Amino acid sequence: MPTQLLFRDDAYLRQTAATVEAVTERGAIILDRTVFYATGGGQPGDAGALVTSDGSEIGIGFAIYDPEDKSRVLHVPLEGQAPPRPGETVTVRLDWEKRLKRMRIHTALHLLSVVLSYPVTGGAIGDGDGRLDFDIPEGGLDRNEIAGALNALVASNADVTERWITDAELDANPGLVKTMRVAPPRGSGRVRLVAIGEIDLQPCGGTHVRNTAEIGLVAVTDIEKKGKQNRRVRIALV
User: Fold this and answer.
1) Whole-angstrom distance, CA of residue 132 vs CA of residue 148
2) 82-136, pLDDT tens digit by residue?
3) Fold for domain 99-237?
4) How far apart are alpha carbons 52 and 81 in whole angstroms?
5) What angle do CA 189, 6, 47 make, to 5 degrees?
6) Which of 94, 113, 78, 126 has its CA nearest to residue 237?
């Protein structure tokens, strides 16, 4: 059975009750539902814990999609953790502080793609920092100018919302896709769009804050030349 991805409907849900469906040969835990984001789109899988009925905790280092069945999420325990039994009910608890930093920086990266309206060739989200790679012709980029424009968008107090469109609707609107090498998450027949007010609209399966004001002040920490036309712009929460 597919894992129910609760973070898709509510990225602020910090915990949930779940049933253990299976434990793989390598000890990864499959649940019927989860609040853990599984690694994808440059965003790392969530960490946290599973709390059993007797109150003991199983530390989870990260979550990934099952390579044999992409509809299921594998919760990978920390080394030395004893897995729960199939059929057992557990409480799935996020490392919320880490998740929130990733949500803030992820939303800020969407805004960065507005400030620098070039094709995106790559990206990564960290715990309070992140980067995007752009296909940019030769020319200087000013860190202070980029930071000023980015923080002006952050301060606009724009709401962040999601909606779904069909694969066919996305195919009819290819301009929605900013990334050159990473395709939007597909497979269910529909694609999730993330809108930031009237500022930005693009397909994304990740987690974001509800309003740009929650991002806080952002700094442009570095601009690197990664090829003739590739520029890597790094940002961090202040």
Assistant:
1) 17
2) 889 999 999 999 999 999 999 999 999 999 999 999 999 999 999 999 999 999 8
3) Threonyl-tRNA Synthetase; Chain A, domain 2 (3.30.980)
4) 12
5) 115
6) 126
